[in-house]
Amino acid sequence: MPEFAEAIAAQIWSVFEGSPRSLAQLRVIGAGALPSAFRVSDLAAGTVAAAALALAEVAGVDGPVKVDRRLASFWFATALRPEGWRVPAPWDPVAGDYRARDGWIRLHTNAPHHRAAAERVLGSQADRAGMGRAVAGWAKAELEAAILAEGGCAAEMRGLDDWAAHPQGRAVAAEPLVAFEPAADRTASRWRPLPGRPLEGLRVLDLTRVLAGPVATRFLAGFGADVLRIDPPDWDEPALVPEVTLGKTCARLDLRRDADRATFEGLLAGADVFVHGYRPGALDGLGYGAQARRALAPGLVDVSLDAYGWTGPWAGRRGFDSLVQMSCGIARAGQLWRGADRPVPLPVQALDHATGYLMAAAVLRLLARRLADGTGGAARLSLARTAALLAAAGPSAAEEEPAPEGPEDLAREVEATSWGPARRLRPPVAVAGVAMRWGRAARLLGDDAPAWAVERAD
């Protein structure tokens, strides 16, 4: 219901210490909710609203901010509508939930090296039936530990109460939704917002992948930011790239090569914003820890995320939205809500999408601070902490599903993606006097040179 979405937005806005005057401009519209044990549609609209409010403050907009809860729900699934071609299937054939000896476990095998890790433990499997037979002989905790030790990704199913009592659950509950770290030094911003297209000229260096970070930078690109996404030479995510590279430049660098490191350092030195999703310590291992980043780019706005939080015994543990849902009790709550005989996840990858919009809002709040006093700073978020926000919103209310999508929900423009023509859903947000649109179609990873799309005189 719109009032619950507005309440979630207000809760987030208080974390960001945003202006009550700005919050008063917010209006959430749209009937219907995605079927779930949790308030997924309210989380969708609330996090989109927080990003939009932060954008309005940076842009200096004194006017209404409108969020369509129904469209926000759809965007949390997919906004792309291919014409005459198909997006690849989102899951590897053996990814999914399996019944172990003593309960359920989820295997995440979308990346080839993660599937290889699972098969080193369970044996090479051609299909789900074979994997199911292999999993059935294990206790879920032992299998989870064995796969993680091999560099893979897995999560046993826990209940909400089990997670609340778990050391990592307690650590996450003690963390803020967004952990801000103000910078100690003051540096004048090389970027200033422009009327109508407020983020034009803002340089965002994007080292994020599946899925929250790319959602964040897609939002920023929609208001004019120059987003440069950097991937390793061999990385791909074919089911997601058409969805999230909208508006971006996409290049590849190998940070183990001296020449590519020099290129990366030049890009970082010219960036206003750095968004990354590496596990804690990973960038330090490459020589680009927080101190090194500040030395290369004084005044940099630095926003990062991980899966399971930044404190506690699982800080740095590999994870994805679907795994966090299993660990944190969400899939078990869904099973109980539906009366099912297996885990029931959220209807969309809501933790990823919501965290993405929270990241975008964090970027914009830090930019506002830098414009005001020159300090900028850093922020950290996690999927597990976003899961806590969703769980704390309480169980879903009885509400009809959103009305089916119709032609009027699509933008008029045809997008010439790297794979073929497509349409997008209309943006789920409208900020007075500011257009949300993307200047570049979705593209393949590595399609571009590692350079900013627009030169500027710094």
List the helices and strands and how they pair.
Blueprint: H1 2-15, H2 20-23, E1 26-29, H3 40-59, E2 65-68, H4 69-75, E3 80-82, E4 96-100, E5 103-107, H5 112-122, H6 128-136, H7 140-149, E6 154-156, H8 160-165, H9 167-174, E7 179-182, E8 203-207, H10 212-221, E9 226-231, H11 241-244, E10 248-252, H12 258-269, E11 273-276, H13 282-285, H14 290-296, E12 301-306, H15 321-327, H16 330-338, H17 350-373, E13 377-382, H18 383-392, E14 415-417, E15 420-424, E16 429-431
Parallel strand pairs: 1-2, 8-9, 8-11, 9-10, 11-12, 12-13
Antiparallel strand pairs: 2-16, 3-15, 4-5, 5-6, 7-13, 14-15
Specify the structural class: alpha/beta
Backbone CA Rg: 21 Å
* N-C termini distance: 46 Å
Largest sheet: 7 strands, mixed
Shape: globular
Widest sheet: strand order?
A: 7-13-12-11-8-9-10
Proportion of strand residues: 15-25%
Number of helices: 18
Task: Describe the fold and architecture.
With 458 residues, the protein is of the alpha/beta class. Helix content is 38%, strand content 16%. The protein is built from 18 helices and 16 strands. The strands form four sheets. The protein has a seven-stranded mixed β-sheet with strand order 7-13-12-11-8-9-10. It has a three-stranded mixed β-sheet with strand order 1-2-16. Strands 3-15-14 form a three-stranded antiparallel β-sheet, with no helix packed on it. Helix 5 packs across helix 7. It is globular and about 60 Å long. The termini are far apart.
